[in-house]
Write a structure and sequence with these properties.
The protein is mainly alpha-helical and 86 residues long. 57% of the residues lie in helices and 7% in strands. It contains three helices and two strands, in the order ββααα. The chain has a two-stranded antiparallel ribbon with strand order 1-2. The longest helix is centred in the middle third of the chain and has 22 residues.
Length: 86
């Protein structure tokens, strides 16, 4: 079982412990970008073209960075970047 023991109350944690509603647009955006990243990963795995695989990997790396920023409250972005996640 995977549990965080922080309770639910309809919220989820962002980076640095800030909490937002699970239906917050930021959470929806992270999920959508994650789904796109998964689809690109499948396309990369199925591709026979090395150049396409390399470009898809570059795009995926950019999406991971984007998800990190989306998962960080705007008030914490400077800290996020200072911590070297950017």
């Amino acid at each position: 079982s995977i549990v965080t023991k922080t309770g639910d109350a309809g919220t989820t944690a962002l980076m640095y412990g800030r909490r937002v509603s699970k239906c917050h647009p930021r959470v929806e955006a992270v999920g959508s970008v994650d789904e796109l990243n998964a689809a690109l990963g499948l396309a990369r795995a199925l591709s026979n073209d090395p150049a396409s695989r390399e470009r898809l990997e570059q795009i995926q790396r950019g999406l991971v960075s984007l998800m990190g920023e989306l998962a960080t409250h705007p008030d914490d972005l400077d800290r996020y970047r200072r911590d070297g996640f950017f």
